[in-house]
Amino acid sequence: MFDKDTLIVSYDPAIGEPRGSRKRGEELGAIGKGHCIDCQMCVQVCPTGIDIRDGLQYECINCALCVDACDSIMEKMSYPKGLISYTTLNKLEGGEWTWKRPKLIGYGVALVAMLVLFSSVLYLRVPLALDVLRTRGSLYQEVPGGYIQNVYTLKLINMSDADLTLDVSVTGAADYRLEPAGTAEVPAGEIVSLPVNVLVDPDQLPLQLNEIEFEVTANEAGYSATSDSSFIGPTPL
């Protein structure tokens, strides 16, 4: 992500070198030295202990404490500020900064695309979810009337900020019946566990393991959620 036009904390050797101590008020031309008086203040205030005058270093965290320290010394010496500053390698080499760079434009396009995608996901998100768990340790049960029964627990997840009344149903290749039939109340931001039984005439089951689908619908809010499961019956003759 770094290039020669990236803004970084840098020391300008063109105006700072040759460095060296001098008395306040001495003319720079007379002593043949740059603006840096080698006071070491930039090193003393650096939290990572580096010398910014040695060039770009990976330890630099761009805190700019060295910038403030150097500017205060330049002010006391009546020198112009900016010996250490936020700048770019191109500007240090005499060039100009520009934002018209393929890398910067590419990052901008990627950021806009991610923001659009994130906004779309939030806008299209359905604040309702359904998880289905089969009762462990039980394949199927024969109940009065000759029906075959499977037992499930439905996890009704309401992620909206309003209470929901959900219609619960089950569909499949056979004429499945849900007990208890009707609706379920799920408060805002809550998860409700709903035990249900699914019954069917065994003569309607084409296989021992049959696919079924549970659906919960919030009619007043206009959205729904589904979850697949399986219904186990006796081995067909």
Number of strands: 11
Topology pattern, helix = H, strand = E: EHHHHEHHEEEEEEEEE
pLDDT below 50 for ≥5 consecutive residues: which ranges? none
How confident overall, as mean pLDDT?
90
User: Could you describe the largest sheet, including whether it forms a barrel?
Assistant: 5 strands, antiparallel
Secondary-structure content class: alpha+beta
Number of helices: 6
The gross shape turns out to be rod-shaped
Q: Helical amount among residues, as a percent range?
A: 10-25%
| Terminus-to-terminus distance | 68 Å
β-sheet strand percentage: 25-35%
Rounded Rg? 36 Å
Describe this structure in words.
The structure is a single chain. A hairpin with a 3-residue loop joins strand 4 (141-143) and strand 5. It contains 6 helices and 11 strands. Strands 3, 4, 5, 7 and 9 form a 5-stranded antiparallel sheet that branches. A 4-stranded antiparallel sheet has the order 8-6-10-11, with no helix packed on it. With 237 residues, it is an alpha+beta fold. The longest helix is centred in the middle third of the chain and has 23 residues, at 102-124.
